Amino acid sequence: MCIKERKCRPALWAIVPFNGPIRSALRVHPTATGLLFYLSTLAPSSHSLPRPPVSSPDPAITMAISPHHLLLLLLAAAAASAGANNLVGELESLRSRSPSGVIHLTDTSVTRFLSSSTRPYSVLVFFDATSLHSKSDLHLPQLRREFALLSAAFQANNPASSDLFFADIEFSESQHSFSQFGVNSLPHVRLIRPHHSRLADSEHMDQSHFSRLADSMVDFVEARTGLQVGPITRPPLVSRNQIILLVLMFLASIPFVIKRILQGDTLLHDRRVWMAGALFVYFFSVSGGMYGIIRHTPMFITDRADPNKLVFFYQGSGMQLGAEGFAVGSLYTLVGLMIAVVTHLLVKVESLQTQRFAMVAVMIVGWWAVRKVIFLDNWKTGYSIHTFWPSSWR
Amino acid sequence: MAETEADAAAAPAAAPGRLRNAFGGVLCAFTLILIGVLAFSIRLFSVIKYESVIHEFDPYFNYRVTQFLSKNGIYEFWNWFDDRTWYPLGRVIGGTVYPGLTLTAGSIWWLVNALNIPLSVETVCVFTAPIFSAFASWATYLLTKEAKGTGAGLMAAAILGMVPSYISRSVAGSYDNEAVAIFALVFTFYLYVKTLNTGSLFYATLNALSYFYMVCSWGGYTFIINLIPMHVLLCIVTGRYSSRLYIAYAPLVILGTLLAALVPVVGFNAVLTSEHFASFLVFIILHVVAFVSYIKGLLTPRLFKMAMTLVITIGMAVCFAVVAILVALVASSPTKGWSGRSLSLLDPTYASKYIPIIASVSEHQPPTWPSYFMDINVLAFLVPAGIISCFLPLSDASSFMVLYLVTAVYFSGVMVRLMLVLAPAACILSGIALSSAFDVLTRSMKFQLSKLFDDGSAISGNGSTEGSSASTVNTNSSKSENKTEKSEAAPKEKSSKKNRRKEKEVTESVPAKSKKEKRLSVLPLEASVIGTLLLIILGGFYVVHCVWAAAEAYSAPSIVLTSRSREGLHVFDDFREAYAWLSHNTDVDDKVASWWDYGYQTTAMANRTVIVDNNTWNNTHIATVGTAMSSPEKAAWEIFDSLDVKYVLVVFGGLVGYPSDDINKFLWMVRIGGGEFPHIKEPDYLRDGQYRVDAQATPTMLNCLMYKLCYYRFVETDGKGFDRVRGYEIGKKHFKLTHFEEVFTTHHWMVRIYKLKPQKNRIRAKLRKLKSGSKSSSTLAAGQKKNPWQ
Q1: What is this enzyme's EC (chain B) (predicted)?
Q2: Nearest by CB to A359, which of B316, B384, B527?
Q3: Structural domain boundaries in chain A
Q4: Is A374 on the interface with B (CB under 8 A)?
Q5: I need a surface site. Which of A150, A193, B96, B386 has the fewest CB within 10 A?
């Protein structure tokens, strides 16, 4: 990943293609107190699909770090030295205090545990920022949970191992360490091996290793350290007792449900419910809602050239945004519903005048909707549908 | 269409009515023939624009199997062990293919030849799909007719005849399972609905046979065996149980499952996998419900109430026991008895999370909204109206249509490939929608026109006005009566109490309805005229789109490529050139290695043994080839030599800009190879997370066999080595091959064939001789000349 120092201009936003679910571009604003992360936009693409027309190959980021900070940190790093064995013991005791075995590091403890040149252990560090937990596109809380699972799995498989420790750092507490590691985009995980003398040399976990969450993090750790992490055990969604309770409740409710079904007065006997359900499934599917679920596409993206402008319609048939799908899906459904209203409802209206007006309205709206969809489709896919006439007619 | 329906259905009485009916019938049959011709001929663009040739990859395998069948007969085919593929493992063809398509085309060929029409097997194979799409449109007519009458049936058949989604899988030359399977699917549904409407055991048996044909033809039969139970369950839950339902379902499960188990590729899966369990569960529930309704008929209400509690307790106990057994069975298998593809339908995110290989295939992607517009076009607008029409009034048949549509549209949302299953449902519902819209509009036009006419002639006499307008309305109401009668008269058996009650309801409701209709069932004249015109324009746009899609989008055979430039049409026939070279210049028993995509074509067209092919049943074998392709030359040579490979075939698009070549597929070779052989590591081939072959490429990438075989001597073409697909110059331009040797490169460089040098012995001999002394050097030179591969 290339990281560029860039002068900050408010009109510069990056649209970033990404393969995994979580890739983002962050930009840091120097005028704000502390560092503010701006989330730009994300657009998924896969190998077979065309790339977005406006894209930068990598998440680009700007960070303002004053050079004398760095100098200070380097000095501090050089000064720090301690007995390796003491450090291992301390780390182990810190680890035992955390339920999942993830050690919380701060600026001081980073200097203490990681800056010394002789370390007999590796540390996998998760860079966290509480202020960014609200950005749902970054999936930070989720990744943090997965990281804890990874740590727990490692501990379960290698109890009392002092080869690898898991740690996390919070941004607002430990800005020094972030700059020391050269971390300026999140999510970010680094592995510091014993032979890494400078912190910035440590290995960065690639975005692709977040794609399958803890399972792919395991691959990374195992490939780089040669240690066995072991199977990831996730806590079940509902606990055993809850399952038993649910099953019991279900069993108890069966006779009542059957009784009501036999009487024929449930919601299931209402045709309108079925009709609405069928129409909804249809609407949801033709608008490509499932595409949004599988690919995690956002509803809209911001324009790269103009951050105040939102892009709702994406050109290129391989990919769609949520909003455009639902807009077109509702046009599909709208026309169908209008035809149904005319054929089944309007015929029963007595006043000819009402019928006339309603039909004119329906026809105008229907004409517009169909034209709109055809236009959008041609624009999006770039197809030009043409007729085939005998050549003598031309 | 609606006029036809009116003609066919409005039969007052006696002679004129019968004549009209006969006329309607003839017209209907004639229309159906025309629809069949349309469905057949719209699929011929590929033959007209290209030639009569089998398309793509899988059809070549089917073609080869059909050839074998027609040459050796059915028993040989059933026991066929194919040693031309998956060398050295081979493949039992008879037990691993869905034989429906092959047997169908084989019998057509046999029949045609028995009639002394000398058609080649290839011709029969090319035209099987268009023929069966004509059949499919007729089956659609029958199915829709069962639900909503003749008019809707004809409309739906015409729409299905040219729906682009179906065309994409059934153009002439696309000789694949789906070609016959869609017909079988629709026909099975028709027979199910027919049985449901008539309660006849005859149709139930036919239904099971048709289901058997579907099982023979396509793995998609699981859709049927899950959809029909769902419908039965729906009927039971909404209180629509009848003995007709029992007859429609119970024989299908028993006979159908027995017959399905006869197909070797399905075998015991028909009772052992989770895809089929829903049908057995519903079978049990149906029996419980049937028993309850039987008891209900025997006992007085009070006694029944008592018996009810008893039955429920016993029934529940039995149900739970069965459910427990099923759950235990399911839980004992690692994937819970479901195949990966089925699971990814139930949980859409499953494949992308756990099975990248399924998620990677382009036809398993979720579709975007333009895909719907491309594949079912304006039907997307009409379907909601069709859904509502099906609910007014809701019958067993129309509820089945709605259920079919809803499940199909959901599945198509998960996988673009299943758009094919959605297409018939969308056609049926659009046909229903269009037909009912035309019905209303033309009826109002007729009524208003006659009123207008009568108003004009009202000066002469007022009485006639009322009379004639009343008669028009009468025609309308009698028509609707007739229709309801027709659909309700269909159920023959009278014993069921419920049925009788229902009929009573209908007879009660009809007069009320017709009274209502007498007053208000029409729309204003001019609006109806414009509405009709608009609908016709919409239909016209659909026709234009379908013809365009058939001609431009879906008719390319992909074995012959064309490109249109300023100088005119340019044809790339490199694939057949290469396969012909192989069959003419190599020994019959030589083994050819290539990526699995080209396996079927190599066996079918070049008749040479391949290592892997498109039937990806052995992942390790594929991974071996992938590993060889991603290894350096020497290691690759050793792998290929251990497999007795003599020639290696690669597809290269860099010169002409053909994007689906082996370099673009290379990531899968690495990924699949690395999955089995850990010394192949994907990061070694990646620069910044991307596969590159330019100057920034990794050394591993530039040294692997695939790179070398693709780009060997490439720099000689333009002096720079500019790759037109990737859009940059290649990284390593000048290199020599040590273990392979180029033997053939096609006209546009799209296929390149290399021969493995018989190197090991010679080099050793050479070294020894060099060491032994200089006097033998002259003989060595002579020996080198003799051996052209050194």
Answers
A1: 2.4.99.18
A2: B527
A3: 14-81, 98-225, 239-269, 271-381
A4: yes
A5: B96
Q: Which of A342, A362, A344 is nearest to B516 (CA)?
A: A344
Spacing of C-alpha B534 from chain mean position: 32
CA distance A286 to B387: 14
Chain B residue with CA closest to A266: the answer is B238
- Please state whether beta strands A15-18 and A41-44 pair in parallel, antiparallel, or not at all (unpaired): parallel
User: Across the strands, what pairs with B403?
Assistant: none
CB contact burial A36-56 (16+ within 10 A = b; e otherwise): ebbbbbbbbbeeebeebeeee
The per-residue pLDDT string of chain A (394 residues; one tens digit each, 9 = 90 and over) reads 333 333 333 332 333 333 333 333 333 333 332 333 333 333 333 333 333 333 333 333 333 344 455 444 444 444 444 455 677 787 788 888 877 778 888 888 777 777 766 777 888 888 888 777 777 667 778 788 888 888 888 888 777 777 788 888 888 888 777 877 777 777 788 888 777 777 777 777 776 666 667 777 777 777 777 777 777 777 766 677 788 888 888 888 877 777 776 666 666 677 888 899 999 999 999 988 888 888 777 877 777 777 777 777 877 777 888 888 899 999 999 999 999 998 888 888 888 888 889 999 999 999 999 999 999 988 888 888 888 888 888 6
Q: Any CB–CB contact under 8 A between A172 and chain B?
A: no
For residue A17, which phi and psi values (nearest 5 degrees)?
A: -80, 145
Whether the CB-CB separation of B617 and B91 falls below 8 Å is answered with: yes
Identify all chain A residues contacting B439, using CB atoms and an 8 Å cutoff.
343
The number of C-beta contacts closer than 8 angstroms across A and B is 207
Angle between helix B633-642 and B619-630 (nearest 10): 150
Q: Do the Cβ atoms of B524 and A336 come within 8 Å?
A: no
Which residues, in sequence order, are CB contacts of B669 under 8 Å at separation 6+?
B595, B625, B626, B629, B630, B662, B706
Best residue of B373, B395, B428, B535 to probe chain A, by most A CBs closer than 10 Å: B373
The helix (run of H) or strand (run of E) holding residue B647 is strand B645-651
Q: How many C-beta atoms lie closer than 10 Å to residue A270's C-beta?
A: 12
**Which fold does the domain A98-225 belong to in CATH?**
Glutaredoxin (3.40.30)
Give phi and psi for B558, each to the nearest 5: 65, 0
